[in-house]
């Protein structure tokens, strides 16, 4: 299992999801991607995106206006 990190702070929708999509294409099943985002709309987008793509949202939290999500590739 590999872990990846994406710094998408400062990007607006759909930038963070696009970055995540590109990384997930390269990841293997079971790999975990952590992404940090400042676009507040990302919170609801990531939940929907994970359901649609059958990836697992392991963690979603916010620290100092930065949204941090951990996603496991399904």
Automatic annotation (TrEMBL):
Residues 5-73 form the UPF0033 domain. Transmembrane segments: none annotated. This is UPF0033 domain-containing protein. Belongs to the sulfur carrier protein TusA family. InterPro entries: TusA-like, TusA-like_sf. It comes from the Bacteria. It comes from Caldicellulosiruptor diazotrophicus.
């Amino acid at each position: 299992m590999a872990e990846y990190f994406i710094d998408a702070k400062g990007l607006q929708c759909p930038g963070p999801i696009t970055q995540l999509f590109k990384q997930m294409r390269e990841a293997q099943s079971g790999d975990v991607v952590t992404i940090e985002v400042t676009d507040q709309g990302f919170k609801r987008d990531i939940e929907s995106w994970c359901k649609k793509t059958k990836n697992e949202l392991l963690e979603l939290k916010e620290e100092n206006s930065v949204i941090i999500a951990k996603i496991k590739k399904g």
